[in-house]
Design a protein that fits this description.
With 186 residues, the protein is of the alpha/beta class. The protein is built from 6 helices and 10 strands. The chain has an 8-stranded mixed sheet, with helices on both faces.
């Protein structure tokens, strides 16, 4: 059985993007990127909202010769994974191993968790909010950046109450902190 993991970036004040939709403040350095790769190696399927998928799909076509070794590693990891994209506006997915779905259905994600042997991540705060509200997210991997953006899209949905157990934490020279939590059953 696979775990559903919500892995993402956030500002110190809890936002994934600022009020203008920008997240350039969260570009990972080599040290952070190396941990991302370590975590992503165990993932078999990515669940994405449309906006995050469009950002991430660059990894399919990017010229890997111009990348660092860590970035090349990530590109290979990303290309190998299955992607399920939730969108009502996309007609076709331009990347291989990608399925488009128009609505989030908790029962389908539950069945996917039961049938997969490799873990699944949910990406994008709107899609993750639906999975959190449905009680499907087993673990959270937060990369907190040392910046306060003052508003935007929150990492956690409004009204969330989650009891969590800290599994791991790391500090990076850049000031980024990583925290890995497991959801504690109510």
């Amino acid at each position: 059985m696979a775990k559903l993991i919500y892995s993402g970036i956030m500002s110190l004040d809890g936002y994934t993007v600022d009020a203008d939709g920008d997240f350039e403040w969260a570009a990972p350095d080599e040290e952070v990127f190396a941990l991302v790769n370590e975590l992503e190696r165990g993932i078999g399927t990515y669940l994405y909202g449309r906006r995050l998928y469009e950002v991430m799909s660059v990894w399919q076509s990017i010229d890997t010769e111009n990348l660092t070794a860590v970035e090349r590693d990530f590109a290979n990891i990303w290309r190998a994974a299955t992607k399920i994209v939730y969108s009502t506006t996309l007609d076709v997915a331009p990347t291989p191993n990608t399925t488009l779905v128009d609505t989030f259905d908790a029962s389908i994600v539950t069945a996917l968790k039961a049938s997969e042997t490799r873990n699944i991540t949910v990406g994008g705060p709107t899609l993750a909010a639906a999975a959190i509200r449905a009680g499907l997210v087993d673990e959270f991997q937060l990369f907190r950046h040392p910046v306060v953006v003052g508003g935007g899209t929150p990492y956690f949905p409004a009204g969330s109450h989650l009891d969590l157990e800290l599994l791991d934490e790391r500090r990076f020279a850049s000031g980024v902190t990583y925290a890995h939590y497991r959801r504690v059953a109510a």
